[in-house]
């Protein structure tokens, strides 16, 4: 019964567009992600970069500190400091065997597991194009991140 309810909620809140030929497929919840952002203007950029780097520097562990964990930590931080419209983005590899998760906020991608120049505040289009080039061309799902106190 719970599965059916979750499935039903998913059907009504997520619009999925399917594209063939290895194009990136996007699913957006509650409309277009390019809407005007409601972003707090007093977010401290230095503190934001510092927190991102702190999360990025945590050693990667497939089971306990992977891209999902790091993305959720950074998304939680963004929400705690007042950022709005924070999304976790799941990008499937074309093999279908694994996926990657990052944070999208204000039209930019934050990837705490990436060790190159694309990790911090990269334009969404540029980031997805680069990932597509290395095989992450499967379904891409955006879902609004909601902070949960632990």
From TrEMBL:
It comes from the Archaea. It comes from Methanobacterium spitsbergense. This is Uncharacterized protein.
């Amino acid at each position: 019964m719970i599965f059916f309810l979750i499935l039903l909620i998913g059907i009504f809140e997520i619009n999925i567009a399917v594209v063939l030929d290895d194009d990136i497929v996007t699913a957006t919840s509650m409309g277009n992600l390019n809407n005007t952002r409601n972003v707090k203007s007093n977010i401290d950029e230095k503190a934001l970069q510092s927190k991102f780097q702190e999360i990025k520097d945590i050693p990667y562990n497939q089971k306990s500190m992977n891209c999902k964990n790091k993305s959720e930590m950074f998304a939680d931080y963004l929400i705690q400091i007042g950022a709005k419209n924070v999304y976790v983005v799941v990008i499937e590899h074309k093999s279908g065997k694994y996926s990657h998760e990052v944070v999208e906020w204000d039209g930019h991608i934050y990837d705490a597991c990436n060790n190159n120049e694309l990790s911090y505040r990269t334009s969404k289009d540029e980031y997805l194009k680069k990932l597509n080039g290395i095989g992450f061309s499967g379904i891409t799902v955006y879902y609004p991140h909601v902070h949960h106190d632990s």
